[in-house]
Model the fold of this input.
Amino acid sequence: MTEALTFLRRATARHGPWIHKILGGALMLLALGLLSLGAHRVLAATTRRWFERDVELRANLAVTSARRGLQRHWTSQDATLLATLEDITRDERILGAAACTVDGERLAATEQFPQPLSCGALAERLRTSTGEGGDRWSATMDLHRGTIHLYAVAISPGGFVVLAHDLSFLARREQTTGRMALAAFVLLALAASLLTTIASRLAWLGWNSQLRLALVGPTPREFEPLVRDLRALVGDLARDRVGVEDSATVWSPERLREVLRTHLEGERVILVANREPYIHEHTPEGVRVLHPASGLVTALEPVLRACSGVWIANGSGSADRETSDPQGRIRVPPGEESFSLRRLWLSAEEETGFYYGLSNEGLWPLCHAADTRPQFRQEDWVQYVAVNQKFADAVCSEIEREDAIVLVQDYHFALCPKMIRARLPRATILTFWHIPWPSAERFGIAPWREEILDGLLGSSIMGFHTRQHCNNFVDSVDAFLEARIDRESSAVVQRGQRTLVRPYPISIEWPVHRLDGVPAAPLCRRQVFEELGLAQGSLLGVGIDRLDYTKGIEERLSAVDQLLERHPEFRGRFTFAQLAAPSRTRIERYRALNDRIEDLVQSINDRWERSGWRPIVLLRRHHEPPEVFRYLRAADLCYVSSLHDGMNLVAKEFVAARDDERGVLVLSQFTGASRELTEALIVNPYDLPQASAALARALVMPVVEQRDRLRSMRALVADRNVYRWAGRMLVEAAQLQKRGRLLGRLSEAGGG
Ligand code: G6P
Done:
């Protein structure tokens, strides 16, 4: 029953317009049919009355002309009375005639006169119906031979003549005319509906051509604004059909720019992220530009270079102030200057509470399942709110139009979307959460869980790397806020504001412009081997991370330890180089991790070290991109062992670096990247036997297999590059913006 109802509901929703048309047509035919039936009845009754009247006149005429003869022979009681009656019935319509006395005695009757009619009954009728002084009576009745009309007229002395007319021809005529009328009405109905359809089609075509004319030609002045918007929307829809998802075409900076031009009218993008893409630092050699170790920066810097716009960030470099203008602005990248970096200055108190405190001791461990307890302090929250407001104000000061497109990045700015929305209700706010979103149960431990969710729901689109993170977010909203969850379209509606929740797996640029100038793989290998003092024929593994407890660096080193234990053949041959960028070092947990890693490296090296060979090399400092890529190109394997990671772009950078199609990626199953890079050796970094076996397998993997795996992953990363990532989000954002504009115009038109 439920299934039937669902089926009906779906069928109605899908074929609604057709069902309505068919029902409308059927109702019209029914109405016309009923009308024709009624008309036919009225017509039949009228024509019957006319015929009866006609018959009466004929009967009267016949009796009048025979009256003398009838009177003469009335009493003669011989055959002449019958002969006179037969003369009267020569008229073919007169069935028979009879002569009766007023007492009901039949004097004579022609052969065809209906036998059931007795003179007594007829005399009685004549008496009662005509009353005193009356001399005639008529009636129509159905006898078994058909319908007959009786006409009785008094004939002195003391009798009357009855003429019976056959009216069955009338019934036949009625049937024939009925059929003809029905046929005529059906034809009429069909003609009418045909005409209506043709008329409405012509009207629709006319309206359409009017609309088309209005869209492409001169428009009546009063419709100009609406038509303008319609024109834009129609254009957009047509363009959208070409498809952002279209995987046949390559996504490049040019294509992304084209998307911005066509979908966003070349509009510049305003991006808010805590980390800046270029840090100016004082060094003994003078001011240097550093490129921070941040997946967020790796992904978004190429996007801003392609799009232009403004990147608003925390100015954290020691030479940042002196390299920017009084408003904190500087054109970047140095030498290319394709977009603006707007630096905001945080006080020591703000940095402590906002960056170190709530963001990195509260939200970071909250969102990562890496067994580190989050710490929530009221004073950190106060700074978090204040800094979010500071960035939201900066966004509002940068916008050029009320319905600007703003990209809010990461967990540092959960409150920004709502703050921006409060000042720019028509803005399209696209928020991307670069780290995992925990289960609702875990998220629920945050003391300001409602405020954080509420802040994020100021966004038009909320993006995560994976569907799982989207689901966790929606579950959290469901658990802690009064909001309507639209699971079908993966959206949350709160106080009339709709937030789409979407997975957009982030990526890197392709081709990687930072690989320009990096030597080819064999040379990189030679250089790195030389730097590390490795003998020819050695095998090299690399790990490249910020020094963060979510990266599983301890587990990684322990896996190397196990590898050497289980596979003596690699002792003295295999070296693992860990490039570790110090990170968030003011936080005790990071300092403790740093110490632990140092100890672990020491103990593993002590265990296996032999003449001139150490299994682990820890390079604990910031490495600029060309250096990172040199190591990635030099290695036999790259091990990414994150315990929990939104995406992990080092994995994708390794794939991009290996244009020689050599090397093996060993990848933690707890990274977002493992969903896409399925040709990597996927491992559970906690499972040391499994991880060390994967390392061993990587080190002996045949060259052909390495090539096949890398080819497949390179094709994927080339296709799903960061331009596609940004393009998809921006097009969706632009569609929302356009819809908002159109609705605004329509409601203005309606209100006005
Ligand atoms: C992660 C975060 C980024 C952050 C990066 C580096 O990738 O998602 O937002 O920029 O870590 O961390 P840091 O604290 O140095 O900016």
User: Anything to note?
Assistant: The first helix runs from residue 2 to 74. Confidence is low (pLDDT under 50) at residues 1-8. The pocket of 6-O-phosphono-alpha-D-glucopyranose is lined by residues 275, 294-296, 410, 434-435, 546, 583-584 (CB under 6 Å). The radius of gyration is 49 Å.
